[in-house]
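Proteins fold reproducibly. Take a tokenised chain:

. . .
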Amino acid sequence: MGPVTAVGSAETLHLNLLGPVEAHRGGTPVKLGGPKPRTMLAALLLARGRVVSDTRLTALLWDERPPTTCPAQLHTYASRVRHLLGPGVEVERRRPGYLLGLPDRGVRVDLLEFQERAARGAEALAAGRAATAADELRRALAVWRGVALGGVCDALADVERDRLEEERLVTLERRIDADLELGRHAALIPELIALIAADPLREGLRGQLMTALYRSGRQADALAAYRAARATLADELGLEPSAALRRLHQALLSGDPALLPRVPRASRGAVPKASAKPAPAVAPTAREPVAVGAAVAAAAGRASAPAGPVTATAPASAPHGERPLRPAELPPPPADFTGRDQEVMRLGTALTTRRPRRPDQAVHVVTGMPGIGKTAVVLQTAHRVKPSYPDGQIHLDLRGSGPRPLDAADALAELLRLLGVPAARIPGTLDERMRAWRTRTADRRVLLVLDDAADERTLRPLLPVTDGCAVLITSRSGLYALEGVSRTVLGPLSPPESRSLFDKLAGRLRTGAEPASAAAVVDACAGLPLALRIAGAKVAARGHWPLSRHADRLTDPGRTLAELAFSDLSLRDRLMEAYRRLTPSARRALRFHSELGPHPVQARTAARALGTGHEEAEELLADLAAAHWAEVVRQPGGYAYRLHPLVRLFARDMLADEEGAVPHVLPVRSSWALARTGDTA
């Protein structure tokens, strides 16, 4: 389902999910009926143009008690939705499920309108256009009419409602950030007090209240707000405030100038001049909300800076009138970073080696399967070595795993802008931009972090040629055709590291009170940092649930992947992005591998399942291993290939969706710790 064009016609069809699930045509309500047709409509809309399988629809409509006639009933509900929505809207039977197709014009979906406005507001806030951001974010929030997905079946609400509510709260925090930048702190205080009363565990709101009180001349009240936050977190979760909230507290005590608005007093409420340097975008994490990090970013940067002033050397070839900038674009490292000590130490040592360096000491690729923590390792390393790169640190998301990767020409334009080249002076062609980039990085010490790279062709023009610069790259592929680089391949966290990370995220009091359930959750996450982060965030958010309930849901193979989704994090979505980039033959090999059991599979076994020769099967398995879908295990007489437990569950779902029902050859689940036996190549 692509972008929806709002049309002013009286016959515009309005489809609403952000409140009671409703449809209106020309202002007249469409009678959708009871929960099941509403659930069918909502599930198809939320799929955003993707096929929703019969299996998923059955689970959403009937949970664990489907009737024997559910295929016929699914057809009935799909036909009813098609009939009610009228001409132009297609509910198409496309095996293994149903697909909703909307026309390009004449339809408005409130969720899409909200997300598009929220994205524009976030971009404006990141670029320093606080007034524009506040306006767009306020309009986005006005789309909501109540609790999302009202009137649908409980199974769909359980899966999707928390995610949508988190999107709303993140947008709300960003709107408050924009208002704070515009100097509206006094007016925000009553609103923030009411929001915290409704959601007392949300640290982002607590940090914004502290900031608003401080900017209103109420330092004592701001400190009291911190004490209240600390007491609530201790009483409810047994946790200390996040590192970001603690840094904000220290900044309040010292009266740090970073707490003052970045928008000059004379221009508050207006859009800053285009020539002003945009504020760096800071991505929210589960433990460092949007609002908290922004207020103390400058103070935190000063704390880690090298002693004494450092002056960046302007490139001699910079045109007259250009002012070379010293960018500081690194997002903050994860506050709860766990494990990977050896990898960070090796990368840090290579990046701080005195010149001259070998080429493979200057360019480093960190790779691994989706959700393995590549960006976390790179950011942790980048912040440690930041003092060694006084001419700037740049972070650029290449969006390689998404549908619209950044191409090399656009990436170079952004890099040149970050070094202070005015937009009017950025060359027009790829070759000219590449030469300009290399000229402006000559004789400078710049650290470049290129996140989520798709392929070698995009990367080559972006690499500086001077040995004073260094590059950290994350990629789901190993980028093995890229010359002169070192590679760090990340595997799953060890069981003790996994438990340590989960304890930090869920709260040690919770995990200590139910150690067996905590161990079951950790084992179900199989050492994957993204899975542990999602599970920990869910446990922290649902403090009234016993940990055993989370463990029971996660260890049920039929719902494990559905459980590993929270807010804007979804393991299934991450895996699906990477899955779509595989060739059709590799996807088929992955699907059939998943049915051969949790243990290492040799090529001859895979060849029988795939109906191919031994050589072809070996090639396909080796390609899966190179793309980090499979692990290579050395065995007597050759090699075998083993899927990560969560990859295997995903691949089994894809097998059922794309090949039809299949028999259970071996048990789906096995203990991750016990399965990881044998030598890995």
